[in-house]
């Protein structure tokens, strides 16, 4: 159990600035996921936390105790940080059995033999791999190796458990199983977990908090629900969500204590209580409206076009069994819609689209920042 | 302000602490210091020596005292009436030999590689074993075999086999450039053979089949597709062969020195023996420059294109070219080559050790005297010298050789692993690159020149190192340093196979450097360690060039003893030693291959 604070962390590899003035607090018992595309600095953050890399600037506190202070070149060695790490490649020692792999750290700590046996067996039991105790890593499947790697990391009861893309080498089905396994483990042990991934659905399903990284900068830290419904800026909005969010350009101005937004899909007005404080209050300015594909309804036009509806022409239909993706052209704008089940539509058909404007997010186009948010309590329960 | 200063103090203190608590830095520090001391300092030392007057030349250089700066030695070497015989003629001889050897061995090796990899020739397994034999054996043993066959009565000692049966061989076939070139080519073609076969194996035959599909003939495909693809390896083999043969000593010493045919390396040896050290060192420097130029050209010209040799993907499936009716003809030619060039010399050499007097094929002339004869038992043969197995000198040399070989291979492999660790973990760091460059230097220096450097460096007490000349420690030292490029390369490649995550997983658990090395790194690299060990072991076993200047009769290796016997025209004894070395080298090679299960031949290039 551990509370971590990273303050003004800078990390360079040569002239390459990998972490840019990173500030992040990880609360005790949190499951914090560092999410971002490859090369964004998330793994580097993990390595700086673990002590395998040292930052050039900044301070790291663990339970209010300094473990890193770059100004005085003070770096606590990794094994003194009460943490453990699960590597992307598992990094199991191929010449040791499962038991020896898990017992390695305990033997270094010179624990009594029976104590080691008890702890290792307990950890293996917990990961349901006790029966493979005497095998070598090469005699195990990928999923079992993964469990050994986790057992090795938790056997010493670390206060902080770091995981670097632990599921990326597993096939899709195993990945789903391991997700729930890791989530359960986190709840049982109560350890603070920092988890690195580029897979957003992993991040959304497992974490209590998500930190989104781009190009070495932290863009947003929030709960999964908030990151999904209210991405802090256009970059995050474009990254989070499959299929991608629709972006519709428009113009906005502040009038009569509300924000009037004018787009190709209609004119909307938002009240003060949905503002984020980033909005401009004078003049007209360009905005981008974000609409999640699953929040749009679609209906076939029979005969007359109903008044006040947004009409478009079907561009392509992509059924995948449980859901169907439909692309519709509205003027010059392409709108993607996600519908549950199988929908029979063909390209060229005219359809009308239905929107729920409260679920739109609105961004200032120049700054890219969110100016109108979605009330989460409204949006998640329909 | 005060806290600012405190911060800075603490920062410096922590910085130093961090630096020294990281074993990587310690190894880098120690290796940079040691390598500078063992490689850079000696180099500077001999450069300085060539500009310094020595006692015995004071009279020749008017108005000088020992230790004064002088250009006398360089002038003598480069611009005097002696220059031609001291430098230019030997240099030309060396260049001529190196060029001829390179051309012949590349052609031979390339053709053989193509036949064995890409054609449907019979007996591939047999030939691929036979072709590398000359490479495994010490090159001087081939020259000994040559003498055993072609030697005529011009110099002392027993004549060769052909003279015995009444065919008088001409001088040009018995000594000098022709036999030197042939013997060296027979030794070095294996290089080209190994390099080119590796390249050929990596070419996907689909590339050639594509040529066939568009209607190109076999020869056109060979010329336009196959050859350009292996060209980088061919060039690389060429330059390697060239730089090796230009600095080689033992073959020209065996086949040239007795008739005053000098190459640059034998000239170095004779100048050193004649006690004109400064001139010898100057020659050594010239050799180093030539060899560095060579390597430089190799890296510039080929380094950039090398990658393209493997284009063509996985290699994988490979169809062979049908030779048709020529298949049997070529098979016969190769068989003749193997018998004449490889098997016959070995047989003749062996048979001669069993014949009391050469050329007399009667039963009573056959004897084990040269093997087990007691001292003085045949007083009229070679002053009663005992057969080698009853000879103290021989047993001493075996003991000495094995002591040297085992110590050197062990020390060099251990250091090689450590250096490999630094080089592989420091790939992107300046320190790693610096170590890699330093370790590479001994590769640039021809063995005999390296020996010359070490004599100069360690003849007298030097800092904390006492005078080592004539000591066994010096032999080990020079053999270790000279083999570091190979040792560290094998260390690097085995370290590269251990991902840094494997090691970091142990760091996280609190495993210190030595604990990690013992528990994780060594167990995982022991295969690489062993094959590196075997490579050095075999290399040192047959080494003569490197240690020839450093050895004394009291403390000598088998190679040196054989060399001494030949110099005194005690051929049968030398031949017997050569046979022993064959057996030992093959034995070690075979056992090594069995134990380590690695193809040592493949790793030899």
Task: Write a brief caption for the model.
The complex is a heterodimer of chains A (382) and B (605). Chain A is of the alpha+beta class. Chain A is built from nine helices and 22 strands.
What does this structure look like?
The complex is a heterodimer of chains A (382) and B (605). Chain A has helices at 42-50, 98-108, 113-126, 142-154, 172-189, 200-206, 224-229, 234-239, 376-379; strands spanning 4-13, 16-26, 31-35, 57-62, 65-69, 74-75, 83-86, 160-164, 192-197, 209-214, 217-222, 246-255, 258-263, 266-271, 284-291, 296-300, 310-319, 323-330, 333-340, 350-355, 361-364, 370-372. Chain A is an alpha+beta fold and 382 residues long. In chain A, the strands form 4 sheets. Chain A has a 6-stranded mixed beta sheet with strand order 7-8-9-3-10-11, with helices on both faces. Chain A has a 6-stranded antiparallel beta sheet with strand order 14-13-12-15-21-22, with no helix packed on it. A 5-stranded antiparallel beta sheet of chain A has the order 2-1-4-5-6, covered by helices on one side. In chain A, strand 17 and strand 18 form a beta hairpin. The longest helix of chain A is centred in the middle third of the chain and has 18 residues, at 172-189. The model of chain B is unreliable at 304-316 (pLDDT under 50). The N and C termini of chain B lie far apart (63 Å).
Keywords:
heterodimer; A: alpha+beta; OB fold (Dihydrolipoamide Acetyltransferase, E2P); six-stranded mixed beta sheet; B: 605 residues; mainly alpha; MetI-like fold; globular
Largest sheet data of chain A: 6 strands, mixed
What CATH architecture of the largest domain in chain A do you see? Answer: 3-Layer(aba) Sandwich
Helix content bin of chain B: 55-70%
- Determine the N-to-C terminus distance of chain A: 36 Å
Could you name the CATH class of the largest domain in chain B? Mainly Alpha
What is the radius of gyration of chain A computed over CA atoms, rounded to a whole number of angstroms? 25 Å
Radius of gyration of chain B from the CA trace?
27 Å
Number of strands of chain A: 22
Percentage of residues in helical conformation of chain A: 10-25%
Question: If interface size is counted as residues with C-beta under 8 Å from the partner's C-beta, which chains form the largest one?
Answer: A-B, 27 and 22 residues
CATH level-two architecture of the largest domain in chain B? Orthogonal Bundle
Largest sheet of chain B: none
Structural class of chain B: mainly alpha
């Amino acid at each position: 159990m551990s509370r971590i604070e990273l303050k003004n962390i800078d990390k360079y590899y040569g002239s390459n600035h990998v972490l840019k003035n990173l500030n992040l607090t990880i609360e005790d018992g949190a499951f914090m996921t560092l999410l971002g595309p490859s090369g964004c600095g998330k793994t580097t953050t993990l390595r700086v936390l673990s002590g395998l890399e040292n930052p050039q600037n900044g301070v790291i506190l663990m339970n209010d105790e300094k473990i890193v202070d770059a100004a005085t070149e003070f770096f606590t060695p990794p094994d003194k940080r009460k943490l453990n790490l699960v590597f992307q490649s598992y990094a199991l020692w191929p010449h040791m059995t499962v038991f020896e792999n898990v017992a390695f750290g305990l033997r270094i700590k010179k624990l009594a033999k029976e104590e080691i046996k008890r702890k290792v067996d307990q950890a293996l039991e917990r990961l349901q791999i006790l029966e493979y105790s005497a095998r070598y890593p090469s005699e195990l499947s990928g999923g079992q190796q993964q469990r050994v790697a986790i057992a090795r990391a938790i056997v010493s009861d670390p206060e902080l458990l770091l995981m670097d893309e632990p599921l990326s080498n597993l096939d899709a089905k195993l990945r789903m199983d391991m997700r729930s396994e890791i989530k359960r483990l986190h709840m049982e042990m109560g350890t603070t977990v920092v988890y690195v991934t580029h897979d957003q659905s992993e991040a959304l399903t497992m974490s209590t908090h998500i930190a989104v990284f781009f190009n070495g900068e932290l863009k947003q830290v929030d709960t999964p629900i908030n990151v999904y419904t209210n991405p802090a800026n256009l970059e995050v909005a474009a990254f989070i969500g499959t299929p991608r969010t629709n972006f519709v350009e428009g113009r906005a101005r502040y009038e009569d204590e509300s924000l009037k937004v004018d787009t190709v899909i209609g004119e909307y007005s938002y009240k003060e209580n949905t503002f984020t404080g980033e909005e401009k209050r004078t003049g007209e300015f360009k905005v981008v409206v974000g609409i999640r594909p699953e929040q749009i309804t679609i209906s076939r036009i029979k005969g007359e076009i109903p008044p006040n509806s947004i009409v478009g022409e079907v561009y392509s239909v992509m059924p995948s069994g449980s859901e169907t993706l439909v692309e519709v052209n509205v003027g010059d704008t392409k709108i993607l819609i996600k519908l549950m089940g199988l929908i029979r539509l063909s390209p060229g058909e005219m359809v009308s689209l239905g929107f729920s404007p409260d679920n739109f997010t609105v961004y200032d186009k120049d700054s890219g920042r969110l100016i109108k948010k979605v009330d989460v309590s409204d949006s998640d329960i329909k | 302000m005060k806290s600012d200063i405190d911060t800075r103090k603490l920062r410096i203190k922590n910085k130093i602490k961090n630096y020294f608590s990281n074993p990587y830095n310690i190894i880098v520090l120690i290796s940079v210091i040691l390598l500078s001391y063992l490689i850079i300092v000696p180099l500077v030392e001999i450069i300085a020596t060539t500009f310094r007057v020595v006692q015995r030349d004071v009279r020749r250089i008017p108005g000088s005292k020992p230790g004064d700066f002088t250009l006398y030695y360089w002038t003598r070497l480069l611009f005097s009436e002696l220059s031609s015989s001291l430098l230019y003629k030997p240099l030309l001889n060396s260049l001529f030999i190196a060029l001829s050897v390179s051309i012949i061995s590349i052609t031979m090796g390339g053709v053989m590689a193509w036949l064995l990899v890409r054609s449907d020739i019979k007996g591939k397994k047999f030939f691929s074993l036979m072709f590398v034999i000359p490479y495994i054996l010490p090159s001087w043993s081939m020259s000994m075999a040559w003498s055993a066959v072609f030697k005529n009565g011009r110099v002392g000692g027993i004549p060769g086999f052909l003279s015995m049966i009444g065919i008088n061989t001409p001088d040009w076939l018995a000594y000098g450039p022709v036999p030197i070139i042939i013997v060296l080519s027979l030794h070095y073609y294996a290089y080209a053979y190994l390099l080119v076969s590796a390249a050929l194996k990596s070419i996907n035959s689909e590339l050639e089949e594509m040529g066939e599909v568009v209607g190109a003939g076999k020869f056109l495909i060979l010329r336009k597709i196959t050859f350009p693809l292996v060209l980088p390896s061919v060039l690389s083999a060429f330059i390697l062969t060239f730089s090796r043969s230009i600095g080689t000593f033992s073959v020209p010493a065996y086949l040239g020195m007795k008739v005053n045919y000098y190459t640059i390396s034998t000239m170095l040896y004779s100048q050193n023996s004649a006690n004109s050290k400064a001139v010898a060192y100057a020659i050594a420097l010239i050799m180093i420059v030539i060899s560095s130029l060579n390597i430089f050209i190799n890296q510039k010209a080929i380094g950039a294109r090398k990658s393209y040799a493997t284009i063509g993907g996985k290699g994988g499936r490979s169809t062979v070219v049908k030779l048709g009716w020529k298949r049997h003809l070529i098979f016969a030619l190769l068989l003749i080559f193997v018998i004449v060039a490889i098997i016959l010399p070995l047989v003749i050499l062996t048979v001669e050790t069993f014949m009391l007097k050469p050329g007399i094929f009667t039963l009573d002339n056959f004897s084990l005297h040269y093997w087990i004869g007691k001292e003085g038992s045949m007083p009229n043969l070679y002053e009663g010298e005992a057969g080698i197995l009853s000879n103290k000198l021989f047993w001493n040399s075996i003991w000495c050789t094995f002591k040297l070989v085992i110590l050197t291979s062990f020390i060099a492999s251990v250091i090689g692993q450590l250096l490999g660790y630094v080089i592989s973990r420091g790939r992107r760091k300046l320190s790693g690159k610096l170590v890699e460059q330093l370790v590479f230097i001994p590769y640039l220096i021809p063995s005999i020149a390296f020996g010359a450097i070490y004599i100069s460096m360690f003849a007298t007490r030097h800092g904390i190192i006492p005078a080592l000349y004539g000591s066994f420690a010096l032999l080990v030292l020079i053999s270790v340093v000279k083999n570091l490029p190979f040792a560290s390369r094998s260390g690097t490649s085995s370290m590269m196979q251990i991902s840094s995550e494997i090691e970091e997983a142990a760091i996280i658990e609190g495993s210190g450097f030595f604990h990690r090395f013992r528990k994780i790194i060594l167990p995982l690299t022991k295969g690489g360690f062993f094959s590196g060990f075997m490579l050095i072991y075999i290399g040192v076993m047959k080494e003569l060039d490197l240690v020839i200047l450093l050895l004394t009769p009291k403390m000598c290796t088998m190679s040196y003893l054989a060399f001494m016997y030949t110099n005194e025209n005690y051929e049968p004894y030398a031949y017997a030693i050569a046979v022993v070395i064959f057996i030992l080298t093959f034995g070690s090679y075979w056992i090594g291959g069995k134990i380590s299960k690695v193809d040592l031949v493949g790793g030899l290039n």
